[in-house]
């Protein structure tokens, strides 16, 4: 039930693979994107993730024409296009990540976006929750590229999850538990689904894509067996953008990685052993015979 993303082994006995999702939190600014890459590197994340859309395929003309005030204009389409990076920006991202020594990949939302990303030889693809139900042709297109696939399961019932695994196949696949709320309130995260997914798919690494506020729940996910943790990151949660409130600021993602690594150091192998120091203390503390 293991696979490699880059040179990182993904599986229950390996170090948790931590993904810092930049997504669209760069607000269309390559300099903000670079700062967020720096945050991920400083925190010790394994990879950063972006999103890629072909705007006219992902939204209807009516949706694009809908009124929406933003710094890019007065329509929803102007905002969507303002947030979308193109070849110039992704060339810069690719170069910058190589310089910083961190992997990057993206969630494509349509087939042309897959083709766009292919030229960067990504280590894997991530399929967003919104591209799971009723998207078999798209799923097969992503899988046809022969790369590892990470799939989120927000807003999916059991039948949808089992169907997407059937379509994609279990090889080179990571299934992510996810609750599709931004931010997800306490009481809805259902973290035991990580264990349920492990029972459903014993040969597939299971991960967690979190949208909650704070870090404890994501650490809990690692303790429950998540082989991969994905969290959105931001420079400041008060910044403009629909994902900012569900994101972690620099100190948050740094502490998350720290706490996951503490868990990995202390989880052990479940085999009971008594150390020499324990024996010394036992001999010191045990009840002594009365003379």
Notes on the structure:
The protein has 291 residues and is α/β, with parallel strands linked by helices. It has a single domain, classed as Aldolase class I (TIM Barrel, Alpha-Beta Barrel), CATH 3.20.20. The protein is built from 12 helices and 12 strands. It has an 8-stranded parallel sheet with strand order 7-4-3-12-11-10-9-8. The model has no long low-confidence stretch (mean pLDDT 96).
Instruction: State the domain count.
Output: 1
CATH topology name, in short, is TIM Barrel
Assign the CATH superfamily: Aldolase class I
Q: Give, in order, the helices and strands.
A: EEEHEHHEEHHEHEHEHEHEHEHH
* Computed Rg: 21 Å
How many beta-strand elements?
A: 12
Q: Which CATH architecture?
A: Alpha-Beta Barrel
Low-confidence stretches: none
Judged by helices, strands and strand pairing, the structural class is alpha/beta
Q: State the CATH class.
A: Alpha Beta
